[in-house]
Amino acid sequence: MLDRLAATLHAARTDKELSVNALADRSGVSRAMIGKIERGEAQPTAALLGRLAAALGMTLSELFARTEGESPRLARLADQTVWVDPETGYRRRSVSPAGGAVQLVEVELPAGARVAYPADSYAVAHHQIYVLDGRLRFQEGDVRHDLERGDCLELGAPVPCAYENVTDRPCRYLVVLSPRRSR
Q1: Which stretches of 53-170 are assigned E, i.e. beta strand?
Q2: 3-class SS of residue 89
Q3: pLDDT digit string (tens) for 55-99?
Q4: Structural domains for the chain
Q5: Which residues, including other chains, have CB under 8 Å from residue 179's CB and lie 6 or more apart?
Q6: The pLDDT of residue 71
Q7: Treating both helix axes as pointing N-terminal to C-terminal, what angle do 2-15 and 60-68 enclose, rounded to 10 degrees?
Q8: Phi, psi (5° rounding) for residue 74?
Q9: Closest C-alpha to 117, from 60, 180, 182, 179
Q10: pLDDT tens-digit readout, 98-136
Q11: SS3 of 32, please?
């Protein structure tokens, strides 16, 4: 997975005709770290990948969909890509077929874990969060949402956000993403 992610990130950057310096400037990620990721020498965190994806004008789900390559319309459980954040243990599973109009992502956030993303991460897609199990604290800019099993939150205008599990048990939630339409 690390080698495919490295190749995908490099291809996305070159498709946008961005130098490593330009991507570093846009994302706030160092040139050295981008180079390590593109060479498959470093396992990036969820937050770092979110910043890179946003700087490339895509969601984290789109970046992973490109990593997964072409996909049939059916995404069997055994074939769904799972990625684990090396820093927090956050586990992300791409549920829906790659490249579809809507992306479904199941996340398991370990007890005590927190993952933050910049506003740019929310600029290219509408997000809804549906809690499957446990409790999730979602910080949307200055607004805090405490979500429980069965709660569904639709995010507003893009602002910096953070997913946080303040309990002593894992939290599972589904993120539903659909593209924002240009006006």
Answers
A1: 82-84, 91-94, 103-109, 114-117, 125-133, 135-140, 143-148, 152-154, 161-164
A2: coil
A3: 998 888 778 777 766 557 788 899 888 999 999 999 999 898 877
A4: 2-67 (1.10.260.40), 72-179 (2.60.120.10)
A5: 101, 124, 125, 126
A6: 58
A7: 110
A8: -105, 125
A9: 60
A10: 777 899 999 999 999 999 999 988 988 899 999 999 999
A11: helix
Matching residue, tokens 């999730």: 136
How many Å apart are CA 147 and CA 156, to the nearest integer?
Answer: 16
Phi first, then psi: what are they for 5, rounded to 5°?
-65, -40
Q: What residue spans of 28-161 are helical by DSSP H?
A: 31-38, 46-55, 60-68
Helix, strand, coil distribution of the chain in percent, nearest 5: 30, 30, 40
Asked whether 121 and 127 are in contact (CB, 8 A), the reply is no
Token pair of 40, please? 């498959």
Residues 31, 25: Cα–Cα separation, whole Å: 9
For residue 53, give both structure tokens: 């994806």
